[in-house]
Amino acid sequence: MIKSIAWRNIWRSPLRSGIIIAAISVGMSAGVFTATFTKGWMNQRLEAGVETEASHMRIQQPKFNENYDLKESIPNSRSLVNEITKLDHIDGISPRIVIQSMIASAETGTGVRIIGVDPEKEKTVTNLHTKLSEGKYFEGMKRNPIVIGAKLAKKLKVKMRSKVVITVHDASGNITGGAFRVCGIFDISSGIFEEMNVFVRKSDLARLLGLDKNTSHEIVIHLDDTEQIDQYAAMLKEQHQDLLVQSWKEAMPELGYLNEIGNLYTYIFVIIILLALGFGIVNTMLMVILERVKELGMLMAVGMSKARIFGMLMLETVLLTFTGGFNGILIGLGATYATMKNGINLSGYNAGFEDMGYSSHIYPVVEFETIYVIAILVIITGILASIYPARKALKYNPADAIRTE
Questions:
Q1: Which strand (E) or helix (H) includes residue 65?
Q2: How does the UniProt record describe the way this protein sits in the membrane (predicted)?
């Protein structure tokens, strides 16, 4: 009965209740859409970072990343690759030669990380071969092909089939160089990765450096089940304690923080919206109580307990908040589903996004766990916003309240 009375009381002033419900709906729809937009944005960066740049795990010598010394190669890497390949859930493994050196075109030069790969094995650990905007992945060129990023191509002022020269210190410590021709240009919406990494065939780089073709500085591993990454990383660390085994979370920790930062940002944004709406709800309910002083006094005079009056007023506030919040969540989800297929194109800010490693075409993603948390926050806001107006109503003396005009 209290619930029915509380619901009817809300609509005694349809205009006022409609305005506050509309305000809550707009605020919550903005909060929900921001949450799905941010989630999609973070997920895209995470997927690009793991599937295109880092893969799931890597194995190196512990000191290799300090100076990329050619001597810090993995001993017996071939047998290690064969051993790991036999494990369950391993669906890709690629040994690499990695050095830091100079690359130059006819116009200019710059420092880059040169990664020597077996193209077919590399396709099993990253999806870079699907990200070429021009050319083909190590195809159409027999001698010394090289795949570079779009941003590096722009910096070096080179195009497809342009010649670039790589200068290196070989295994004997001599300075030498080799000419390569651009066979592919990748575009992954990450300006830093595009500018700092080039890919050549492992056999070409080993020959240039004077290394054995089986030499490897890094072994990259891809699993068919991402839930197994931490378990496999721990197992390989235990089995190969003389090597540095890292999951993508350890190799690129900034990627691991993305989801946490995205969720934190979303909840802070939603809480700010709810705080603003909460003050509006309190103000509205105080006006409602001020208009109903005489009515509340009569209810108390005929024997209605203060606890039931308190509960009725709280219920009115919660129903008002929940109605607006529920509408807002539905509107936010509707906007998300309307845009999640084709995405939201922010290409006007493309340069800035790429410098940070983010795509400018964003596909919102619905994560129901976040929506549940937002719904709970709405209910909590309604309950907290109802306490002060309801307590204020209980302070009226029935005799004085009845005489109020």
A1: helix 64-67
A2: Multi-pass membrane protein
Report percent pLDDT > 90 for the chain.
Answer: 31
Nearest to 219 by CA among 71, 9, 46, 56: 56
Identity at 152, one-letter amino acid code = L
Q: Residue 137 burial by CB count (10 A; 0-12/13-18/19+): exposed, middle or buried?
A: buried
DSSP characters for 285-309?
HHHHHHHTHHHHHHHHHTT--HHHH
The span from the CA of 38 to the CA of 43, in Å, is 8
Average confidence (pLDDT) over 323-347: 89
- Facing residues of 185 across strands? 134, 148
Q: What are the tokens at 337? A: 């589903």
For the residues 377-394, what does the mean pLDDT come to?
Answer: 83
Q: Which residue shows structure tokens 């992945």?
A: 137
Task: State how far the alpha carbon of 37 is from the alpha carbons of 42, 195, 272, 347, in Å.
Answer: 9, 28, 18, 16
Angle at 316 between CA 314 and CA 321, to 5 degrees: 95
- In 3-state terms, what secondary structure has residue 172? coil
| Each residue's pLDDT tens digit, 224-282 | 988 889 999 999 999 988 999 999 888 888 777 777 777 788 888 888 888 888 888 88
- The span from the CA of 192 to the CA of 187, in Å, is 11
Residue 74 carries which DSSP code? P
Judged by DSSP in three states, 125 sits in coil
The answer for residues whose C-beta is within 8 angstroms of residue 318's C-beta and 6 or more apart is 379, 382, 383, 386
Q: How far apart (Å, rounded) are the C-alpha atoms in residues 137 and 159?
A: 15
How buried is 368 (Cβ within 10 angstroms: 0-12 exposed, 13-18 middle, 19+ buried)? exposed
Residues 6+ apart with CB under 8 A from 87: 232
**Beta strand pairing call for 197-201 and 145-149:** antiparallel
Find, among 60, 95, 97, the residue nearest to 79 by Cα: 95
The two structure tokens encoding residue 18: 């409609």
Sign of CA dihedral 28, 31, 34, 38: negative
Q: What is the DSSP string of 325-352?
A: HHHHHHHHHHHHHHHTTT-EE-GGGHHH
The CA dihedral of 42, 43, 45, 47, to the nearest 10 degrees, is 160
